[in-house]
């Protein structure tokens, strides 16, 4: 199905960026820059700004909701959320309270995107056993969904203390929007559908078309569980500049450095070379980098292929400087977003 109403958003992990002299900025300066980036995203009319939760040196943001609250005070329309909240190593009651508070200060613009997290630092940091990785998320997501009813909850599990007719505050004015971030597991897709939550696919390598069976599974599962339609989104990395070459030359060394660092930690075979990168920025890859026209066409193709409701570009990657990121955001909002909608409208007119 062609969607002309596609929402286009941005995600960042608060990557620690370089200053003008090439040295890394402080965490504090990086966080202040994130607020500026979100403010610009609002000004150019983008739909969503998401901040990921991490607990490691490369990323400055460990408490996204606090940064999002600061952003809420200087923006008017853009919706604000996480990308993702690591629910497995947090407490669902506290997570719900934080998002309900964010929803209040943002006047109803908060969205929780919940996940297990692709990094594991938060588990030992907060005293959780990685052997409980699956059970922690399953149980805590169940409790979070019950809290979304905003009625007193009685609940018993194995990973936290039981609740007996517990009421949680503050109450929201219109309810809270929640998604689940999924990396490619069919079990995770079915779990998301069972709870009737939005599905956010993290596509960070390979062809997006590989995820079409998961989208189909999600829609079938929603029906089988008795839910109506629910949104499907994609989160993927990229960078926009005036020309393809400018964007690629800026992004490649950052992605190579990140991939090789994480690869050493996780024991990945092989390296990340220019050929790998060019495949990813090509038509069948999952990196959305280049000129506004190239990126717009690639996003439109992904929207068509997967029937998306939203596409979120992870615009901050490695040490890319604040000025580059601001220009990328400006181009995304003023040139890419209108062009994506134009391309999808052409499809609808030809249908």
Automatic annotation (TrEMBL):
Gene3D superfamilies: Luciferase-like domain. The keyword Oxidoreductase applies. It comes from the Bacteria. GO terms for molecular function: monooxygenase activity; oxidoreductase activity, acting on paired donors, with incorporation or reduction of molecular oxygen. Pfam families: Bac_luciferase (PF00296). The keyword Oxidoreductase applies. GO terms for cellular component: cytosol. InterPro entries: Bact_Lucif_Oxidored, LLM_Atu2307-like, Luciferase-like_dom, Luciferase-like_sf. Residues 24-309 form the Luciferase-like domain. Keywords: Monooxygenase, Oxidoreductase. NCBIfam families: LLM_2I7G (TIGR03858). This is Oxidoreductase.
């Amino acid at each position: 199905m062609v969607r002309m109403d596609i929402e286009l958003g941005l995600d960042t992990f608060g990557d620690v960026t370089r200053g003008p002299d090439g040295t890394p900025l402080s965490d504090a300066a990086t966080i202040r820059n994130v607020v500026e980036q979100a403010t610009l995203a609002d000004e150019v009319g983008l739909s969503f700004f998401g901040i990921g939760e991490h607990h490691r040196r490369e990323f400055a943001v460990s408490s996204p909701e606090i940064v999002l609250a600061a952003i809420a005070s200087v923006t008017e329309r853009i919706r604000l959320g996480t990308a993702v909240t690591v629910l497995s190593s947090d407490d669902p009651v506290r997570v719900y309270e934080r998002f309900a508070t964010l929803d209040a200060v943002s006047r109803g613009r908060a969205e929780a995107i919940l996940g297990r997290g692709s990094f594991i630092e938060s588990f030992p940091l907060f005293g959780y056993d990685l052997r409980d990785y699956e059970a922690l998320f399953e149980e805590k997501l169940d409790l979070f969904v019950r809290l979304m009813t905003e009625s007193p909850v009685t609940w018993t599990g194995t990973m936290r203390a039981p609740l007996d007719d517990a009421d949680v505050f503050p109450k929201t004015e219109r309810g809270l929007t929640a998604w689940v971030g999924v990396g490619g597991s069919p079990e995770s897709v079915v779990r998301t559908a069972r709870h009737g939550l939005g599905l956010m696919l993290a596509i960070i390598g390979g062809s997006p078309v590989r995820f079409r069976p998961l989208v189909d599974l999600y829609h079938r599962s929603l029906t089988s569980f008795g839910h109506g339609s629910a949104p499907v989104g994609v989160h993927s990395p990229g960078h926009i500049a005036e020309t393809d070459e400018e964007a690629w030359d800026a992004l490649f060394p950052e992605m190579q450095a990140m991939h090789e660092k994480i690869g050493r930690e996780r024991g990945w075979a092989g390296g990340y070379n220019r050929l790998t990168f060019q495949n990813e920025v090509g038509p069948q890859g999952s990196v959305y980098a280049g000129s506004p026209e190239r990126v717009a066409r690639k996003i439109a193709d992904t929207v068509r292929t997967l029937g998306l409701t939203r596409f979120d570009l992870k615009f901050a990657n490695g040490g890319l400087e604040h000025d580059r990121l601001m220009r990328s955001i400006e181009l995304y909002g003023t040139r890419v977003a209108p062009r994506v909608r134009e391309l999808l409208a052409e499809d609808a007119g030809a249908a």
